[in-house]
TrEMBL record:
Family of this protein: Belongs to the cation transport ATPase (P-type) (TC 3.A.3) family. Type IB subfamily.
Annotated source species: Streptomyces atriruber
Protein name: Heavy metal translocating P-type ATPase
Highest taxon above the source species: Bacteria
Compartments it resides in: Cell membrane
Length: 309
């Protein structure tokens, strides 16, 4: 018997490393005319390294003490930045303390109790903004906060992702983290632009400076770069496109991408770098994290649809 075209397309996509979950998805893939890409773990390899360790002067912390504190709080997290922090601490031979009460806020960071003190690690844009501490329980030193923000901005201008470390809500240091672009990122953006007739959009929770720098390297510029987004903001960006009649493909890896993957016409998750939630939510999974297989799968869908119609 001859296999129906959409089923052979699924088999074919599978051979190329794209696991398409159903014939309906295989068909929808070929309809996409807009693309939204996540940055960290999607366009980048998702194996970032800690490059800078900057205790805030007067915090009384050494580089090692700052890193060990951050690693303890990050230990339970599956975020690529968390793995970078834990790996850096291990490389320096630091002991990683046990924690209690771990919580993670997608797009913001993590908090945990380490030896009866609260340690928070995450994005400077939200953690140094004390309008988000409504109970004002901490005595915040404004000068130290300003100094921490400046250190973070300097690192971000250098293309780093900066994460701040707070001890009992007071900033005690900043870590600079750098990630590499996937080798096929620029070529994939070019192919997707060709296939859909418009430049993909970059949706990231990371800072605007690092986002713009990386976007330029893959040929995404200006209006198409959306930084500092929370998971819900990614959903809204997708909904705006869909409201204009665009059928949007979302490609992402994180827990923070799951709502946007669900809202999209078609959601694709990174199989290796991806979180379990992203893999479950997405309509398809790129098994070996090779971005170039995405345009390939779209082309296979279109070829199959020509046979169906
Ligand atoms: P992206 O959208 O680029 O994949 P995320 O939404 O996952 O990025 O993260 C956005 C920002 O939130 C990060 O750049 C970082 O500042 C902060 N963040 C999120 N999770 C963590 C974490 N586990 N540790 C430190 N910072 C985090
Ligand atoms: Mg991501």
């Amino acid at each position: 018997a001859t296999m129906p075209p959409l089923l052979s397309a699924i088999a074919n996509a599978g051979r190329h490393g794209v696991l398409v979950k159903s014939a309906v998805v295989m068909e929808r893939l070929g309809q996409v005319d807009a693309v939204a890409l996540d940055k960290t773990g999607t366009l980048t390899e998702g194996t970032p390294r800690v490059t800078d360790i900057r205790p805030v002067p007067g915090s009384g912390l050494t580089e090692d003490a700052l890193l060990a504190l951050a690693a303890a709080a990050e230990h339970p997290s599956e975020h690529p930045l968390a793995r970078a922090v834990v790996d850096a601490a291990r490389t320096r031979g630091l002991a990683i303390a046990d924690t209690r009460d771990f919580t993670s806020t997608p797009g913001v960071g993590v908090t945990a109790t380490v030896a009866d003190r609260t340690v928070t690690v995450g994005t400077p844009a939200r953690l140094l903004d004390h309008t988000e501490d409504p109970d004002h329980t901490a005595t915040i030193d404004a000068a130290k906060t300003a100094e921490t923000a400046k250190t973070a901005a300097d690192l971000e201008n250098g293309g780093r992702t900066a994460v701040v470390v707070l001890l009992d809500k007071a900033p005690v240091g900043v870590l600079g983290i750098a990630d590499r672009l996937r080798p096929d990122a620029a070529a994939t953006v070019a192919d997707l632009t060709c296939l859909t007739g418009s430049t993909p959009m970059l949706l990231t929770g990371d800072n605007p400076r690092a986002a713009a720098r990386l976007a330029a390297e893959v040929g995404i510029t200006g209006d198409e770069v959306h930084a500092g987004l929370l998971p819900q903001d990614k959903v809204e960006a997708v909904r705006r496109l869909e409201a204009r009649g665009r059928r949007t493909l979302v490609l992402g890896d994180g827990v923070n991408d799951a709502p946007a993957l669900a809202a999209a016409h078609t959601g694709i998750a990174m199989g290796r770098a991806g979180s379990d939630l992203a893999l479950e939510t997405a309509d398809a999974v790129i098994v070996r994290d090779e971005l170039a297989t995405v345009p390939k799968a779209i082309a296979l869908s279109r070829a199959a649809r020509r046979l169906v119609v």
